[in-house]
Every structure is written in C-alpha cells, then in structure tokens.
C-alpha cells in the first residue's frame, strides 16, 4: 500500500490531449472569451492552402461533453491574429486581416456580439479599419476608454509601414 501511494504521489502532473480540433486549417491564433455562462474559442485562420479567403471559427464549450463544438463561421481575409474584448459589458472581436489574395492593403474588421442570436454580427461590422498586412491586434482600456492597436507589417511594397492605435468612440 505504501508503494502504491508513493507511486501515485510521484506520477508527474501534466496536460493530456482532450480534443483535436480538425476543422482548423492554417490557424495562426486563437483566444478564449466568456459571455454569460458560456466559454468560447475564436480562431484566426490565415490560409487554406489555396486561398486567403478563410473561414475563422467560433467554438463553444459543451459542458456535457467537455469539448468545444462548432458554433459560428466568420469569413475573413487571411487573418493572423484575433482579439476578443469587452466595452461596457458588450463583447466584441477584432481580427488582424493580412491579405485578400491580391493585396495587403485591406481593412481589418471588428464585430459585435448579438445577444439574441448568441453570435457575432458578421454581416454588420462595427469597425472596418484600414490596415497594411496586419500581423497583430490587441486591446486595452485606460481611463475608461477602449483602444485597439493593429501591428501592420507590409503594404505590398515595403515592410516599413506604420502600426496604428484606434480609440472607441461611443458616438
């Protein structure tokens, strides 16, 4: 009995694979967010192998199976990063869109969560921000104001393009 107890105590603690997410191809980023009692993952899927027009996915945690289930698909232009954030209790997500197959001079989009449908309203972006081969996006709040920063990488001719900071204007 003592040997069994000692063996159990010496067993290393580690992560084991719970789930494979097979629908994710060309995924370069994913982040989690929580709305109400639900936990979600949102992905930024960059390239399918033949196209930058890619479906990024929102997956919802299933509390019965303890796995993520497909929940929503958002069609984007080669995003490299994703940033979920909240403003005054409302959920948003921003994608750093890199390339549409023809140019890196494209808009990166921001979507608002629709509580009635429990999905992002991808038909009506709340922001369409001009970026140049955006590689990253992050959000932060200072003094009650929410900011988004896009890390721009390439404007089709040079890597010396400027990144940009944007502030939420509640109107």
Give a quick set of tags describing it.
171 residues; five-stranded antiparallel sheet; mainly beta
Describe the structure.
By secondary structure, the chain is mainly beta. The strands form three sheets. Strands 5, 6, 7, 8 and 9 form a five-stranded antiparallel sheet that branches. It has a four-stranded antiparallel sheet with strand order 1-2-3-4, with no helix packed on it. The model has no long low-confidence stretch (mean pLDDT 87). The chain is built from one helix and twelve strands.
Poorly predicted spans: none
Radius of gyration: 19 Å
Distance between the termini: 69 Å
Strand content: over 45%
Shape: globular
- Derived from helix and strand composition plus strand pairing, the structural class reads mainly beta
The counted number of beta strands is 12
Q: What pattern of helices and strands is seen along the backbone?
A: HEEEEEEEEEEEE
What summary fits the major beta sheet?
5 strands, antiparallel
State the helicity in percent bands: under 10%
Put simply, the count of helices is: 1
Round the mean pLDDT to the nearest integer and report it: 87
